[in-house]
Amino acid sequence: xxSTLREGCERPVLRPFNLSSNKSYKSAKRLFVMAHPEWRASxxxxxxxxxxxxxxxxxGTYLDYxxxxxxxxxxxxxxxxxxxxxxxxxxxxxxxxxxxxSRLASEARLAVLSFFDADPNEYTVxxxxxxxxxxxxxxxxxxxxxxxxxxxxxxxxxxSVNGLREYAFAGGAHVSYTPLFGDIAQTLAALPRLTxxxxxxxxxxxxxxxxxxxxxxxxxxxxxxxxxxxxxxxAAALAPTxxxxxxxxxxxxxxxxxxxxxxxxxxxxxGALVARSTFLTKLKKxxxxxxxxxxxxxxxxxxxxxxxxERWEDGTINFxxxxxxxxxxxxxxxxxxxLPSRLALLMHFTLSYLDSLRHTNGKPIVxxxxxxxxxxxxxxxxxxxxxxxxxxxAMVSFSLLNSTGDRVPPHRVEREAGxxxxxxxxxxxxxxxxxxxxxxxxxxxANFKLEESQSTLNNExxxxxxxxxxxxxxxxxxxxxxxxxxxILRISFGLASTLKDxxxxxxxxxxxxxxxESGAYHEDATVLASGSTACCDLTQDKYWxxxxxxxxxxxxxxxxxxxxxxxxxxxAPV
Length: 574
Description:
Elements: H1 25-35, H2 43-52, H3 56-59, E1 61-62, H4 73-85, H5 96-115, E2 123-128, H6 131-141, E3 150-154, H7 159-162, H8 164-170, E4 174-178, H9 184-189, E5 200-205, H10 218-227, E6 230-234, E7 255-259, H11 260-264, E8 271-276, H12 277-280, E9 293-296, E10 303-305, H13 319-322, H14 325-335, H15 339-356, E11 366-368, H16 377-380, E12 395-400, H17 410-419, E13 422-423, E14 425-427, H18 432-439, H19 442-446, E15 451-452, E16 455-456, E17 462-463, E18 466-467, H20 479-485, E19 488-492, H21 499-518, E20 526-529, E21 533-537, H22 541-546, H23 549-557, E22 561-563, E23 571-573
Parallel strand pairs: 1-13, 3-4, 3-5, 5-6, 6-7
Antiparallel strand pairs: 2-8, 7-8, 9-10, 11-12, 12-19, 14-19, 15-18, 16-17, 20-21, 22-23
Helix pairs in contact: 5-14, 6-8, 15-21, 20-23
């Protein structure tokens, strides 16, 4: 993986600092910087925050950079000025306005290739609406051979990667999974017995959007060289804070999916598939549309598709937004040198405090689910590599615990954090495999009995997939509860994150926990029967932990309920 870090900044030495929770922010920052003077090296990022993100002073504390990065003010202002003074036409023409759009689109492609250090003679850039649609291009076009081809998916995958299996099922391929947090040896050991020199497609998550774990990209090189797999990298969560060099990876990545808004917040509606030209020749395009076809015989059956990226860009590309791609990547590139060390120190600051928080009875307030080491100040000395930006992203998945050690419902914490101006996320993060594993409910999910249904993907083969009858039995602890409502909490840092952001989040956790423990906190959430008679009080954690049917039904679907007058006594959503 290419690194643009200055020597010595890549793996900061993490040292203990005073963790007194009663100190002010200024005192805590002073003590932390005294222990980690290298923090000062990232001062340009603090200046960027003041200059470009002043709106955050009124918007609260933003800690969902994995969900969406935030755009710098000047990027939007400069793009707006360009829109005001220039005329852009549909690029599928030769007019001056069309040529202007085509020129800026070409500059955007070159900017993407340059940012990821991709050889223009090897790779091409196909613009899409987001990373999901970039993945879809590969999924729907990949040539599977019935009973011979394999699709290897990571257990730790976004649902946009999980969805690739539908095309594999339709093509008669075998689908299997590589393990969560698996190293190279564990991943290779999990591969099925292969009988073909061209076994199929191997997909890899670059960085988990649930835990922040970074998978070793050398895996792609090995499965390609040793077994002949074509390779697909989901880099949506990896690319914003990690420099990826496709050239230094030996061109072992056949295709990579990204989203611009994940990287720097703007423009939205622009993603890309960065793919090797030789790999694209293997794909079979299933249809054509305006923009991707040169000649269509009507009446008749003949058609002649475009070559290169135009073959895969159906319809008109988002040409107005593409003019913002180069300046966006240029800005991100100029500050990316500071991010690995800075974000590692932010993680150390946050994890150290979270690990130190205790209830009055001495029990921990926070349970860390992500594999990022729960760094304790007393154990930092002599362990400089206990956190590494090379193996963990700037993200923490966790749960809050009450004084008895039971988990506080995550959606409730998210809601109260929002009231306090803290932007976090709860649920399964569209990554059910990793979420279930981190929560220890993988077996329950795997053994869950779903109502079988048929989903036809094409006229040749049906996909043996299943759906959930969400309202059939609210008493049952169903899959949605395991994955969604018994989910996790996540905070994530990014380009504009500061120590103050981490501090404000820690103060919220302390205040929220103190109020719950003292009985001062009360949430106005109840399930009401007809006539406003209370069925059960959702503020009582005992219902959540006991699996009370009435309250769990409400937790499952995140809404108010009435007990209707059905003969079965079912709960009906309001």
